[in-house]
Design a protein that fits this description.
alpha/beta, about 425 residues, 6-stranded mixed beta sheet
Length: about 425
Protein backbone atom coordinates (compact mmCIF):
# COMPACT_ATOMS: atom_id res chain seq x y z
CA UNK A 1 0.00 0.00 0.00
CA UNK A 2 1.21 3.49 -0.84
CA UNK A 3 -0.27 6.85 0.04
CA UNK A 4 -0.50 9.48 -2.68
CA UNK A 5 -1.81 13.02 -2.83
CA UNK A 6 -4.51 12.64 -5.48
CA UNK A 7 -7.33 14.71 -6.87
CA UNK A 8 -10.75 13.11 -6.87
CA UNK A 9 -10.42 12.62 -10.62
CA UNK A 10 -7.05 10.91 -10.22
CA UNK A 11 -8.50 8.68 -7.49
CA UNK A 12 -11.20 7.58 -9.94
CA UNK A 13 -8.60 6.78 -12.62
CA UNK A 14 -6.45 4.78 -10.20
CA UNK A 15 -9.44 2.75 -9.05
CA UNK A 16 -10.39 1.94 -12.66
CA UNK A 17 -6.80 0.94 -13.35
CA UNK A 18 -6.59 -1.39 -10.35
CA UNK A 19 -9.99 -2.84 -11.26
CA UNK A 20 -8.34 -3.94 -14.52
CA UNK A 21 -10.89 -2.19 -16.68
CA UNK A 22 -10.61 -3.43 -20.27
CA UNK A 23 -12.71 -0.94 -22.20
CA UNK A 24 -13.20 2.81 -21.73
CA UNK A 25 -15.48 4.69 -24.16
CA UNK A 26 -15.11 8.38 -23.39
CA UNK A 27 -16.16 11.91 -24.21
CA UNK A 28 -14.55 14.90 -22.44
CA UNK A 29 -16.45 17.44 -20.38
CA UNK A 30 -15.36 19.79 -17.59
CA UNK A 31 -14.67 18.89 -14.78
CA UNK A 32 -14.44 15.17 -15.68
CA UNK A 33 -11.75 15.35 -18.39
CA UNK A 34 -8.77 14.62 -16.12
CA UNK A 35 -10.14 11.12 -15.50
CA UNK A 36 -10.13 10.09 -19.13
CA UNK A 37 -6.83 11.88 -19.84
CA UNK A 38 -5.16 9.73 -17.17
CA UNK A 39 -6.73 6.52 -18.48
CA UNK A 40 -5.87 7.41 -22.09
CA UNK A 41 -2.20 7.84 -21.14
CA UNK A 42 -2.10 4.50 -19.34
CA UNK A 43 -3.70 2.65 -22.23
CA UNK A 44 -1.35 4.36 -24.70
CA UNK A 45 1.83 3.46 -22.82
CA UNK A 46 0.79 -0.11 -22.01
CA UNK A 47 0.20 0.31 -18.28
CA UNK A 48 -3.43 -0.73 -18.87
CA UNK A 49 -4.47 -3.52 -21.22
CA UNK A 50 -7.55 -3.10 -23.34
CA UNK A 51 -9.04 -0.33 -25.43
CA UNK A 52 -9.69 3.36 -24.95
CA UNK A 53 -12.02 4.97 -27.49
CA UNK A 54 -13.21 8.56 -27.84
CA UNK A 55 -16.80 8.67 -29.05
CA UNK A 56 -18.77 11.48 -30.71
CA UNK A 57 -21.08 12.15 -27.76
CA UNK A 58 -22.08 10.99 -24.30
CA UNK A 59 -25.06 9.18 -25.79
CA UNK A 60 -22.80 7.09 -28.03
CA UNK A 61 -20.38 6.61 -25.13
CA UNK A 62 -23.02 5.08 -22.86
CA UNK A 63 -24.40 2.83 -25.60
CA UNK A 64 -20.87 1.60 -26.40
CA UNK A 65 -20.24 0.96 -22.70
CA UNK A 66 -23.43 -1.06 -22.38
CA UNK A 67 -22.70 -3.12 -25.48
CA UNK A 68 -19.17 -3.91 -24.30
CA UNK A 69 -20.34 -4.93 -20.84
CA UNK A 70 -22.97 -7.22 -22.37
CA UNK A 71 -20.19 -9.17 -24.10
CA UNK A 72 -18.34 -9.78 -20.83
CA UNK A 73 -15.82 -6.94 -20.83
CA UNK A 74 -15.23 -4.96 -17.62
CA UNK A 75 -16.18 -1.45 -18.70
CA UNK A 76 -15.78 2.03 -17.25
CA UNK A 77 -16.78 5.51 -18.31
CA UNK A 78 -17.32 8.96 -16.83
CA UNK A 79 -19.23 12.15 -17.52
CA UNK A 80 -20.63 15.30 -15.91
CA UNK A 81 -23.58 17.67 -15.92
CA UNK A 82 -24.94 18.29 -19.44
CA UNK A 83 -23.16 15.13 -20.58
CA UNK A 84 -25.14 12.99 -18.15
CA UNK A 85 -28.37 14.66 -19.24
CA UNK A 86 -27.49 14.19 -22.92
CA UNK A 87 -26.98 10.48 -22.20
CA UNK A 88 -30.22 10.10 -20.23
CA UNK A 89 -32.05 8.06 -22.88
CA UNK A 90 -29.10 5.67 -23.03
CA UNK A 91 -28.99 5.30 -19.23
CA UNK A 92 -32.50 3.87 -19.23
CA UNK A 93 -31.64 1.66 -22.19
CA UNK A 94 -28.55 -0.04 -20.82
CA UNK A 95 -29.94 -0.52 -17.33
CA UNK A 96 -32.77 -2.40 -19.03
CA UNK A 97 -30.10 -4.61 -20.58
CA UNK A 98 -28.98 -5.45 -16.99
CA UNK A 99 -25.32 -4.79 -17.79
CA UNK A 100 -22.86 -4.42 -14.88
CA UNK A 101 -20.58 -1.46 -15.50
CA UNK A 102 -19.44 1.62 -13.59
CA UNK A 103 -20.18 5.22 -14.58
CA UNK A 104 -18.61 8.08 -12.64
CA UNK A 105 -20.42 11.41 -12.64
CA UNK A 106 -18.51 14.53 -11.62
CA UNK A 107 -21.40 16.72 -10.50
CA UNK A 108 -21.83 20.17 -12.01
CA UNK A 109 -24.83 22.51 -12.11
CA UNK A 110 -27.06 22.34 -15.18
CA UNK A 111 -27.74 25.10 -17.72
CA UNK A 112 -29.21 27.66 -17.99
CA UNK A 113 -27.58 29.87 -16.78
CA UNK A 114 -24.19 28.24 -17.23
CA UNK A 115 -22.03 27.35 -14.23
CA UNK A 116 -19.01 25.12 -13.68
CA UNK A 117 -19.65 24.79 -9.94
CA UNK A 118 -21.14 21.61 -8.50
CA UNK A 119 -24.61 20.77 -7.40
CA UNK A 120 -26.66 17.58 -7.56
CA UNK A 121 -29.43 18.24 -10.05
CA UNK A 122 -27.52 16.33 -12.72
CA UNK A 123 -27.05 13.12 -10.76
CA UNK A 124 -30.46 13.20 -9.07
CA UNK A 125 -32.10 13.52 -12.47
CA UNK A 126 -30.78 9.98 -13.04
CA UNK A 127 -32.15 8.46 -9.84
CA UNK A 128 -34.98 6.63 -11.64
CA UNK A 129 -32.91 5.16 -14.47
CA UNK A 130 -32.14 1.83 -12.79
CA UNK A 131 -28.54 2.76 -11.94
CA UNK A 132 -27.37 2.12 -8.38
CA UNK A 133 -26.07 5.43 -6.95
CA UNK A 134 -23.16 5.91 -4.53
CA UNK A 135 -22.23 9.46 -3.43
CA UNK A 136 -18.72 10.17 -2.09
CA UNK A 137 -17.53 12.79 0.39
CA UNK A 138 -13.72 12.47 0.12
CA UNK A 139 -11.13 11.48 -2.47
CA UNK A 140 -10.43 8.28 -0.54
CA UNK A 141 -14.10 7.41 -0.61
CA UNK A 142 -14.17 8.12 -4.34
CA UNK A 143 -11.41 5.55 -4.89
CA UNK A 144 -13.02 3.00 -2.59
CA UNK A 145 -16.50 3.49 -4.04
CA UNK A 146 -15.38 2.71 -7.59
CA UNK A 147 -13.93 -0.63 -6.47
CA UNK A 148 -17.04 -1.43 -4.42
CA UNK A 149 -19.24 -0.40 -7.35
CA UNK A 150 -17.84 -3.18 -9.53
CA UNK A 151 -18.55 -5.79 -6.85
CA UNK A 152 -22.10 -4.46 -6.56
CA UNK A 153 -22.71 -4.29 -10.30
CA UNK A 154 -21.29 -7.71 -11.08
CA UNK A 155 -23.13 -9.60 -8.32
CA UNK A 156 -25.75 -11.90 -9.91
CA UNK A 157 -28.41 -10.63 -7.50
CA UNK A 158 -27.97 -7.10 -8.91
CA UNK A 159 -26.47 -7.16 -12.41
CA UNK A 160 -27.05 -3.46 -12.99
CA UNK A 161 -24.86 -0.45 -13.78
CA UNK A 162 -23.61 1.62 -10.84
CA UNK A 163 -23.09 5.39 -10.80
CA UNK A 164 -20.47 6.83 -8.44
CA UNK A 165 -20.87 10.57 -7.85
CA UNK A 166 -18.29 13.13 -6.74
CA UNK A 167 -18.57 16.89 -6.61
CA UNK A 168 -16.84 18.86 -9.34
CA UNK A 169 -13.94 21.08 -8.26
CA UNK A 170 -14.50 20.54 -4.52
CA UNK A 171 -13.36 16.92 -5.03
CA UNK A 172 -12.45 16.52 -8.68
CA UNK A 173 -9.53 18.98 -8.47
CA UNK A 174 -8.80 18.89 -4.74
CA UNK A 175 -5.78 16.85 -3.64
CA UNK A 176 -6.16 14.71 -0.57
CA UNK A 177 -4.15 11.75 0.77
CA UNK A 178 -5.44 8.52 -0.79
CA UNK A 179 -4.28 5.03 0.12
CA UNK A 180 -3.59 2.97 -3.01
CA UNK A 181 -3.53 -0.76 -2.15
CA UNK A 182 -1.37 -3.38 -3.81
CA UNK A 183 -2.82 -4.93 -6.93
CA UNK A 184 -2.93 -8.42 -5.42
CA UNK A 185 -5.15 -7.21 -2.55
CA UNK A 186 -7.52 -5.54 -5.01
CA UNK A 187 -7.61 -8.79 -7.00
CA UNK A 188 -8.67 -10.65 -3.85
CA UNK A 189 -11.49 -8.17 -3.34
CA UNK A 190 -12.43 -7.85 -7.02
CA UNK A 191 -11.83 -11.03 -9.07
CA UNK A 192 -11.92 -11.01 -12.86
CA UNK A 193 -15.32 -10.25 -14.35
CA UNK A 194 -17.29 -13.38 -15.21
CA UNK A 195 -20.54 -12.37 -16.95
CA UNK A 196 -23.68 -14.24 -15.95
CA UNK A 197 -25.37 -14.17 -19.36
CA UNK A 198 -22.88 -12.96 -21.98
CA UNK A 199 -24.36 -11.98 -25.32
CA UNK A 200 -21.26 -13.12 -27.18
CA UNK A 201 -18.88 -15.90 -26.15
CA UNK A 202 -16.57 -15.67 -29.16
CA UNK A 203 -17.84 -18.82 -30.83
CA UNK A 204 -20.33 -17.33 -33.26
CA UNK A 205 -21.76 -14.08 -34.54
CA UNK A 206 -24.67 -12.77 -32.54
CA UNK A 207 -27.33 -10.17 -33.25
CA UNK A 208 -29.57 -8.88 -30.49
CA UNK A 209 -32.59 -6.63 -30.57
CA UNK A 210 -34.89 -5.40 -27.83
CA UNK A 211 -38.44 -6.57 -28.48
CA UNK A 212 -41.51 -4.36 -28.28
CA UNK A 213 -43.49 -5.81 -25.37
CA UNK A 214 -47.06 -5.48 -24.23
CA UNK A 215 -47.84 -3.90 -20.88
CA UNK A 216 -47.87 -7.12 -18.87
CA UNK A 217 -44.44 -8.31 -20.00
CA UNK A 218 -43.03 -4.79 -19.73
CA UNK A 219 -44.35 -4.47 -16.17
CA UNK A 220 -42.73 -7.77 -15.21
CA UNK A 221 -39.28 -6.78 -16.46
CA UNK A 222 -39.43 -3.30 -14.94
CA UNK A 223 -40.45 -4.74 -11.58
CA UNK A 224 -37.60 -7.26 -11.77
CA UNK A 225 -35.24 -4.30 -12.15
CA UNK A 226 -36.81 -2.70 -9.08
CA UNK A 227 -36.23 -5.88 -7.08
CA UNK A 228 -32.62 -6.05 -8.27
CA UNK A 229 -32.03 -2.48 -7.09
CA UNK A 230 -33.52 -3.45 -3.71
CA UNK A 231 -31.20 -6.47 -3.61
CA UNK A 232 -28.27 -4.06 -3.74
CA UNK A 233 -28.91 -3.10 -0.09
CA UNK A 234 -28.01 -6.59 1.15
CA UNK A 235 -25.23 -6.98 -1.41
CA UNK A 236 -23.76 -3.62 -0.38
CA UNK A 237 -23.68 -4.79 3.23
CA UNK A 238 -21.73 -7.90 2.23
CA UNK A 239 -19.38 -5.98 -0.06
CA UNK A 240 -18.74 -3.37 2.64
CA UNK A 241 -17.88 -6.10 5.18
CA UNK A 242 -15.41 -7.68 2.76
CA UNK A 243 -13.93 -4.27 1.95
CA UNK A 244 -13.45 -3.54 5.65
CA UNK A 245 -11.75 -6.90 6.17
CA UNK A 246 -9.22 -6.27 3.42
CA UNK A 247 -8.70 -2.51 3.57
CA UNK A 248 -9.76 -1.46 7.07
CA UNK A 249 -12.31 1.16 6.01
CA UNK A 250 -15.98 0.63 6.75
CA UNK A 251 -18.81 2.03 4.64
CA UNK A 252 -22.51 1.79 5.32
CA UNK A 253 -25.41 3.10 3.27
CA UNK A 254 -25.41 6.05 5.71
CA UNK A 255 -22.55 7.87 7.42
CA UNK A 256 -23.49 8.83 10.98
CA UNK A 257 -21.46 11.64 12.57
CA UNK A 258 -21.84 12.44 16.28
CA UNK A 259 -25.31 10.96 16.18
CA UNK A 260 -25.15 8.97 19.42
CA UNK A 261 -27.21 11.45 21.51
CA UNK A 262 -28.10 14.06 18.88
CA UNK A 263 -31.44 15.81 19.30
CA UNK A 264 -30.97 17.95 16.17
CA UNK A 265 -29.71 16.35 12.95
CA UNK A 266 -28.53 17.67 9.59
CA UNK A 267 -29.08 15.37 6.61
CA UNK A 268 -26.74 15.97 3.66
CA UNK A 269 -24.78 14.24 0.92
CA UNK A 270 -21.57 14.83 -1.03
CA UNK A 271 -18.41 16.78 -0.24
CA UNK A 272 -20.23 19.65 1.49
CA UNK A 273 -20.95 17.19 4.29
CA UNK A 274 -17.40 17.91 5.49
CA UNK A 275 -18.47 21.53 6.05
CA UNK A 276 -21.55 20.25 7.86
CA UNK A 277 -19.42 18.10 10.17
CA UNK A 278 -17.27 21.12 11.04
CA UNK A 279 -20.45 23.03 11.91
CA UNK A 280 -21.59 20.14 14.10
CA UNK A 281 -18.25 20.27 15.94
CA UNK A 282 -18.62 24.00 16.60
CA UNK A 283 -22.13 23.57 17.99
CA UNK A 284 -21.08 20.54 20.05
CA UNK A 285 -18.31 22.68 21.59
CA UNK A 286 -21.06 25.09 22.69
CA UNK A 287 -22.93 22.26 24.44
CA UNK A 288 -25.60 21.55 21.81
CA UNK A 289 -26.61 17.96 21.04
CA UNK A 290 -26.35 18.04 17.25
CA UNK A 291 -25.27 15.49 14.64
CA UNK A 292 -25.06 14.84 10.92
CA UNK A 293 -26.38 12.00 8.77
CA UNK A 294 -24.81 11.70 5.33
CA UNK A 295 -26.64 9.78 2.62
CA UNK A 296 -24.07 7.65 0.83
CA UNK A 297 -26.38 5.22 -0.95
CA UNK A 298 -29.09 7.17 -2.79
CA UNK A 299 -30.41 4.28 -4.91
CA UNK A 300 -31.52 1.99 -3.52
CA UNK A 301 -32.84 4.28 -0.82
CA UNK A 302 -31.88 2.82 2.57
CA UNK A 303 -35.36 3.32 3.96
CA UNK A 304 -35.13 1.20 7.11
CA UNK A 305 -31.70 2.57 8.07
CA UNK A 306 -32.90 6.15 7.55
CA UNK A 307 -36.00 5.64 9.68
CA UNK A 308 -33.97 4.04 12.45
CA UNK A 309 -31.24 6.70 12.42
CA UNK A 310 -33.74 9.58 12.68
CA UNK A 311 -36.23 7.97 15.09
CA UNK A 312 -36.69 9.93 18.29
CA UNK A 313 -34.80 13.05 17.18
CA UNK A 314 -36.46 16.35 17.97
CA UNK A 315 -35.54 18.19 14.76
CA UNK A 316 -34.19 17.24 11.33
CA UNK A 317 -32.95 19.67 8.70
CA UNK A 318 -32.30 18.40 5.19
CA UNK A 319 -29.77 20.42 3.18
CA UNK A 320 -30.35 19.92 -0.53
CA UNK A 321 -27.66 20.91 -3.02
CA UNK A 322 -30.35 20.79 -5.70
CA UNK A 323 -33.73 22.26 -6.47
CA UNK A 324 -36.77 20.80 -8.19
CA UNK A 325 -38.68 23.90 -9.38
CA UNK A 326 -42.18 23.89 -7.97
CA UNK A 327 -41.31 21.23 -5.39
CA UNK A 328 -38.14 22.24 -3.55
CA UNK A 329 -35.37 19.96 -2.32
CA UNK A 330 -35.35 16.46 -3.78
CA UNK A 331 -33.69 14.71 -0.84
CA UNK A 332 -36.01 16.46 1.62
CA UNK A 333 -38.97 14.88 -0.14
CA UNK A 334 -37.30 11.46 0.01
CA UNK A 335 -36.48 11.75 3.71
CA UNK A 336 -39.93 13.11 4.52
CA UNK A 337 -41.53 10.18 2.68
CA UNK A 338 -39.51 7.73 4.79
CA UNK A 339 -40.56 9.41 8.03
CA UNK A 340 -44.22 10.06 7.13
CA UNK A 341 -45.47 6.84 8.70
CA UNK A 342 -42.52 6.09 10.95
CA UNK A 343 -42.90 5.59 14.68
CA UNK A 344 -41.26 8.28 16.85
CA UNK A 345 -40.66 10.55 13.88
CA UNK A 346 -39.01 13.94 14.52
CA UNK A 347 -41.21 16.76 15.80
CA UNK A 348 -39.63 19.31 13.44
CA UNK A 349 -38.55 18.87 9.82
CA UNK A 350 -37.18 21.70 7.73
CA UNK A 351 -35.87 21.98 4.17
CA UNK A 352 -32.87 24.10 3.21
CA UNK A 353 -31.59 24.69 -0.34
CA UNK A 354 -27.88 25.49 -0.47
CA UNK A 355 -24.74 25.11 -2.51
CA UNK A 356 -26.40 25.52 -5.91
CA UNK A 357 -23.79 25.93 -8.64
CA UNK A 358 -21.06 25.45 -6.06
CA UNK A 359 -22.14 28.40 -3.88
CA UNK A 360 -20.51 28.06 -0.50
CA UNK A 361 -22.51 27.16 2.58
CA UNK A 362 -20.92 29.45 5.14
CA UNK A 363 -20.55 29.15 8.89
CA UNK A 364 -23.21 31.86 9.19
CA UNK A 365 -25.64 29.78 7.15
CA UNK A 366 -25.01 26.62 9.18
CA UNK A 367 -25.63 28.70 12.31
CA UNK A 368 -28.89 29.88 10.78
CA UNK A 369 -29.96 26.27 10.09
CA UNK A 370 -29.28 25.14 13.65
CA UNK A 371 -31.03 28.19 15.10
CA UNK A 372 -34.13 27.56 12.97
CA UNK A 373 -34.21 23.88 13.92
CA UNK A 374 -33.82 24.57 17.64
CA UNK A 375 -36.28 27.46 17.80
CA UNK A 376 -39.08 26.07 15.63
CA UNK A 377 -42.27 25.13 17.48
CA UNK A 378 -43.27 21.51 16.70
CA UNK A 379 -46.77 22.82 15.93
CA UNK A 380 -45.34 24.84 13.03
CA UNK A 381 -45.83 22.62 9.98
CA UNK A 382 -44.12 24.92 7.44
CA UNK A 383 -42.82 22.96 4.45
CA UNK A 384 -41.61 25.82 2.22
CA UNK A 385 -37.84 25.36 1.68
CA UNK A 386 -35.48 28.11 2.80
CA UNK A 387 -32.80 29.24 0.35
CA UNK A 388 -29.45 29.68 2.06
CA UNK A 389 -28.27 33.12 0.95
CA UNK A 390 -26.23 35.69 2.86
CA UNK A 391 -26.92 39.43 2.98
CA UNK A 392 -23.60 40.03 1.21
CA UNK A 393 -24.61 37.76 -1.65
CA UNK A 394 -28.02 39.41 -1.92
CA UNK A 395 -26.38 42.84 -2.13
CA UNK A 396 -24.15 41.53 -4.94
CA UNK A 397 -27.22 40.43 -6.89
CA UNK A 398 -28.91 43.81 -6.40
CA UNK A 399 -25.74 45.56 -7.60
CA UNK A 400 -25.74 43.41 -10.74
CA UNK A 401 -29.39 44.28 -11.38
CA UNK A 402 -28.68 47.97 -10.87
CA UNK A 403 -25.73 47.95 -13.28
CA UNK A 404 -27.90 46.14 -15.83
CA UNK A 405 -30.53 48.86 -15.51
CA UNK A 406 -33.08 46.57 -13.87
CA UNK A 407 -35.33 47.67 -11.05
CA UNK A 408 -34.49 46.15 -7.67
CA UNK A 409 -37.76 47.31 -6.11
CA UNK A 410 -39.60 44.06 -6.84
CA UNK A 411 -36.57 41.81 -6.66
CA UNK A 412 -36.76 39.24 -3.89
CA UNK A 413 -35.60 35.81 -2.85
Amino acid sequence: MVRKMLTGNAAVAWAARLAKVEYVPAFPITPQTEIIESLADWFANGEMQGKFVTLDSEHSMIMAAGAASATGVRTFTATSSQGLIYAMEALYTISGWRVPLVLVNVSRGLSSPVTLGPDHNDVLAARDTGFIQLHAETCQEVFDSVLMAYRLAEDSRVSLPVLVNLDGFFLSFTREPVEIPEAKVVEEFLPDFTPHHPVFDGSQSVAQGVAVLDGAAYSYFRYQMHRAVENALQVHEEVAADFHRLFGRRYGPLDEYRMEDAETVLVMTGSFSTKGKAAVNRWRDQGHKVGLLRLRLIRPRPTAALAQALAGRRAVGVIDQNISPGLGGILFQEVAAVLANANHRPSVMRSFIGGLGGKDISQTEFNRIFEVLQQTDPEDQTVEPELLFTATEWNQIKNVLTVAGKSVEGASL
